[in-house]
Amino acid sequence: MKSSKGVLRPAIVSLLLMTVLCGVLYTAAVTGIAGIFFPAKAEGSIITVTLKDGSRKEYGSALIAQEFTEAKYLIGRPLGTSNLSPTSTEQKEIIEKRIDWWHNLDPDNRRDIPSDLVMASASGVDPNISPAAADYQAERIAQVRGIKVEDVKKLIDKYTTGAFLGIFGEKAVNVLKVNLALDGLL
C-alpha cells in the first residue's frame, strides 16, 4: 500500500503543471498571437475619438452594446437576456411594454416594429441591430435633430456591415458608431 505522500505528489505535480500550461502559457500565447494579428480586437475594439482640443476620448467597444434611450439617437436592442419561453405570458407582457415604449417615444411612427427592437439578443449585449430596425428609426432621428432623413440613412449605410464572407449571418448596423457619427465624432 502506497503512503499518502506517494499518492498526493503526482496529483499536486499534475495540478501545478496543468495550471502553468493551460492557465499561463496557453493564455499568454493566444493573447500574444491575437495582439499581433488582430490588435484592435485584442484590445477590445475600443472606439477612441480625437476631440477638437486634441485630447482623445474612449466611447466604448464596438463589440458591446451601449444603452441609448434619447429620441435623437439610434436605439439598440433591449439589454439583458431572458430564459422565458417565447410563448409565456410574462414574455408577452415584457414585449408589449417594449412596444408601448416605442410608441410613446415615436407616436407618429405606426409601422411594424422590427423584432430586434423588442427582444433581447442571446448575449444580452449585442451592439448591432438589423438594417430594418435602423430604418424604422431614421425619420424620428432626422426630425429631432433637424436634418434630412437621407443624411441619417447615409450614416446608417456607412456603419452597416455585410454577412461574414458574404454568406454567414446577416447585415448589421453598429448602433454606437452611428450615434457617434450623428454627434459628429466619427
TrEMBL record:
Q: Where in the cell is it found?
A: Cell membrane
Q: Which residues cross the membrane?
A: 12-38
Does the keyword Cell membrane feature in the UniProt annotation?
Answer: yes
Per the UniProt record, one Pfam family is KdpC
How this chain sits in the membrane, per its record, is:
Single-pass membrane protein
What InterPro entries is this protein classified in? KdpC
Q: Which family does it belong to?
A: Belongs to the KdpC family.
Subunit structure, interactors included: The system is composed of three essential subunits: KdpA, KdpB and KdpC.
What protein name does the entry list?
Answer: Potassium-transporting ATPase KdpC subunit
Q: Which organism is it from?
A: Anaerocolumna chitinilytica
User: Source organism lineage?
Assistant: Bacteria, Bacillati, Bacillota, Clostridia, Lachnospirales
Q: Which gene encodes it?
A: kdpC
